[in-house]
Amino acid sequence: MTATDQRFREFKMPDVGEGLTEAEILKWYVQPGDMVTDGQVVCEVETAKAAVELPIPFDGQVHELRFAEGTTVDVGTVIITVDTEPGSGAEPSAAEAPQGGSAAGDGGGAVDQPGYYPPKPEAGADEGVEPEGRQPVLVGYGVAASSTKRRPRKPQPGQSVPSQPGAGGATAAGAAAPEGPGEPGRPTGSGTAAPAEAPAAQRPQPTAAAIQAELNGHLGAAAGTTEARPLAKPPVRKLAKDLGIDLATVTPTRRDGVITREDVHAAAASAMAATEVAPAPAPAPGAAAPAAQPAAAPEVSAVARETRVPVKGVRKATAQAMVASAFTAPHVTEFITVDVTRTMKLVQDLKQDPDMAGVRVNPLLLVAKALLVAIKRNPEVNSAWDEANQEIVRKEYVNLGIAAATPRGLIVPNIKDAHAKTLPELGTALGELVITAREGRTSPAAMQGGTVTITNVGVFGVDTGTPILNPGESAILAFGAVKLQPWVHKGKVKPRQVTTLALSFDHRVVDGELGSKVLADVAEILEHPKKLITRA
Questions:
Q1: d(CA 357, CA 349)
Q2: Is 507 one of the catalytic residues?
Q3: pLDDT at residue 304 greater than cutoff 70
């Protein structure tokens, strides 16, 4: 390993879960040139299970971000390089450079690749001069921290020379272009010397716009034109192609000039609004006027009224899990409607109990406790089917999953060893689980090892549903909305608070009798909550 290799450290996308193969970069918290310390969070990524913050394991200065936000990266791929000895002047070896980008002449496909470097001239070519050093340029999300040292290429016949920050433009015919910065006093084609370069401390630092202009110039020169290719991610380019929109006509709204889906949709809407029926050509002099034709309505593309959302992250994992569960485990769902008036009164009483101070008390807490009691009375329901070994695995512990709807999709974190917790402990754990899920901070470990799940569809005003089992589990309880309804109570029709419960179970593991007993026990405890004491 060379000294340069030791100096420039690479940080690869880790496997933050069990067997995950990829993750999407949601947000960078650092930019090239920033100083970082061991353990500092540098980015947030989303896996198939959760959003996770990644800390850097060494000190130094950020040299390069290899991928833009929104990019899905395979586990084990380098995502950031750090200069552990900033200011020593060495650059990474050529082997460390990312190889992304397109070949010269394909019109700038490299703008979609992070860490793009302008291509070097082919071996043996005498028409250009190889750049001094290696300078990553702006790719829509950041620049490398090293300084720019580059000599211009000699133009091909019929090709203009792109201007560069700090370097002279093309000279008159027959005169060579002046050298770029970093080459003071070198003779030019006219025999004159260029002015000496200003000290680094006095030179203005190139702006993002200037660096982007340099990138556009390199890409234009490689393709035989100075016209810049619009910046957009591949999915956005595909959307524009599907809608028939030329990206060159789209005005980006982002400050870095990258075109987004919203920009393309806005351009498509403007194009549709501007569509008019072309007027018929005027008849020739002396010719009879053609018969009037009914005006044709402008064509409206059906595609322009649709939005395609890539399936990835939590949504992708949820889809795969639900399909696997629905078409592997034979589901059976049973329902029961129950009077929970006493339970709702107990919720109000517990809110005033000093022992529950600081604990969020709600009906879901008592439903969870009722299910744990029912599992204690019917432990066989807390099992799993092992297809590979043809065994039923009975769990002596209960990791209680709570289905949570988050902005990123459905997740099911679980409360470890919920069966061993007191009511205040269960309430505290449930409150922390819900808050963490809503904030998108649920860890992959919190979503592994569940044994049974509750889904609270009642928060959406829904009476009940037929929930699908979480893979690896054999039962899931749906808790519906609690509503005031007429109910026969002590021989009289009275308004009572009523809800509907639904229990789905894997019929390979749970027979109808066992499933019915579990559901009936939960209902009985919620109708008479004092049984939480007598049956616990």
A1: 12
A2: yes
A3: no
